[in-house]
User: Which sequence fits this backbone?
């Protein structure tokens, strides 16, 4: 995959597991978490890094939630996003839609489950893939975004699976977005590097680190070192929060 300097077609890391994808002047959010609504009365799950800009600064056409956990379905920002973006649609599995229905009407939602396919126009389509989040979620999904001829695979929160290709059906992937934190049903640096090797993308972008101390934080440096040994043919791009990667 050749990285392009492009302000319109891009992958932008928003922190945690969150991304904005821009393609053909459409903007798709994935697992955005920009509030601090996960923090409880004990101060647990306090966000450690701020978002790159206020939640209400985002203009998007679609918001994908891979599962219903609060850092993947931001109930602290959801109403604001839908108030600011009149045509916004939420896409996700049943667990995400059921949770979101507490705040937004069902007609603002589109179901996408494992094995599902969705054409959203502008030469963009989505494939819902199996995602093994262990006991954390029984209907979590990964998503392949087909952007013209480019295939971007967001695994979702997925524990280490040596058989990830067979389990998910992911193939011909150009860019991989994968979690690297070692807790709560995610693979850690080495496990993520092994799954990267199995998928064999041109570029991999690590995510789901530095958000909560309870997640074990995650270390992009360790992931990069593991990939250099395990998957040396894949280019690792560690993005700063808010940084864009042209596609």
Assistant:
């Amino acid at each position: 995959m050749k990285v392009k300097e492009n302000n319109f077609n891009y992958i932008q890391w928003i922190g945690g597991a969150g991304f904005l994808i821009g393609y053909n002047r459409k903007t798709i959010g994935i697992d955005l978490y920009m509030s601090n609504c996960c923090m409880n009365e004990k101060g647990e799950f306090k966000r450690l890094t701020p978002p790159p800009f206020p939640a209400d600064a985002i203009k998007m056409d679609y918001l994908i939630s891979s599962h219903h956990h609060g850092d993947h379905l931001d109930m602290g920002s959801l109403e604001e996003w839908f108030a600011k973006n009149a045509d916004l649609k939420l896409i996700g599995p049943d667990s995400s839609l059921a949770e979101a229905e507490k705040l937004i009407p069902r007609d603002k939602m589109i179901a996408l489950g494992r094995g599902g396919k969705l054409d959203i126009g502008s030469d963009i389509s989505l494939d819902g893939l199996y995602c093994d989040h262990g006991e954390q979620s029984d209907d979590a999904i990964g998503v392949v975004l087909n952007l013209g001829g480019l295939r971007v695979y967001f695994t979702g929160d997925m524990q280490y699976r040596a058989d990830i290709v067979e389990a998910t059906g992911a193939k011909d992937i150009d860019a991989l977005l994968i979690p690297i934190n070692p807790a709560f049903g995610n693979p850690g640096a080495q496990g993520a590097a092994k799954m990267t090797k199995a998928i064999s993308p041109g570029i991999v972008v690590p995510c789901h680190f530095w958000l909560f101390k309870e997640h074990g934080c995650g270390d992009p440096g360790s992931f990069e070192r593991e990939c250099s040994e395990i998957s040396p043919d894949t280019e690792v791009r560690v993005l700063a929060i808010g940084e864009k990667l042209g596609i």
In short: Residues 188-199 form the longest helix (12 residues). The domain at 10-246 is CATH 3.60.15.10 (Metallo-beta-lactamase; Chain A). The chain has a mean pLDDT of 93. The chain is about 15% helix and 25% strand.
